[in-house]
């Protein structure tokens, strides 16, 4: 029995709106502030202009993260375009990931707890 497989339609937005939403999400993410407050001070020289160093290191961090996000997004877009034409591969990947999740859940049943 062969099942039909449909990819959900995706509502597209403009690049400006997507960029704006990304900035808002990242700016309001408490993990971002925690990262900057925990990680960047290790590289700041207290005898120099501290604020300027924070800005420079922050810009470098944002540039690296943005570059990584662009690469991942581009790769995902290519993979999605290729997978649209191969629904059987998507079904096998879903089954395999489901089996892995079931296996992980089953392994939790047998974990010995030390109290």
Describe it.
The structure is a single chain. It is built from 4 helices and no strands. It has helices spanning 15-27, 30-39, 50-84, 87-109. The radius of gyration is 22 Å and the shape is flat. With 115 residues, the chain is mainly α. The mean pLDDT is 85.
Based on helices, strands and strand pairing, what is the structural class? mainly alpha
Number of helices: 4
Looking at the structure, what is the overall shape? flat
The radius of gyration computed from the alpha-carbon positions, rounded to a whole number of angstroms, is 22 Å
Strand residue content = under 5%
Which stretches of 5+ consecutive residues score pLDDT under 50? none
Mean of pLDDT? 85
The ordered string of helix (H) and strand (E) elements is HHHH
Largest sheet, strands/sense/barrel: none
Helical content (DSSP H or I, runs of 4+) = over 70%
The end-to-end span amounts to 50 Å
Which oligomerization state do the chains in this entry correspond to? Answer: single chain
Number of strands: 0
Which structural traits does this protein have?
115 residues, mainly alpha, 4 helices, 70% helix
Task: Provide a short characterization of the protein structure.
With 115 residues, the protein is mainly alpha-helical. It has helices at residues 15-27, 30-39, 50-84, 87-109. It contains four helices and no strands.
Compile the SSE list and pairings.
Layout: H1 15-27, H2 30-39, H3 50-84, H4 87-109
């Amino acid at each position: 029995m062969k099942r039909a497989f449909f990819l959900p339609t995706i509502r597209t937005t403009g690049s400006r709106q997507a960029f704006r939403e990304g900035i808002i999400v990242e700016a309001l993410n408490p993990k971002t502030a925690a990262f900057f407050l925990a990680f960047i001070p290790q590289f700041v020289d207290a005898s120099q202009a501290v604020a300027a160093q924070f800005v420079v290191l922050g810009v470098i961090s944002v540039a690296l993260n943005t570059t990584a996000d662009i690469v991942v997004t581009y790769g995902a877009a290519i993979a999605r375009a290729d997978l649209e034409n191969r629904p059987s591969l998507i079904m096998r990947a879903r089954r395999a990931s489901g089996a892995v999740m079931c296996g992980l859940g089953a392994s939790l049943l047998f974990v010995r707890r030390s109290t």
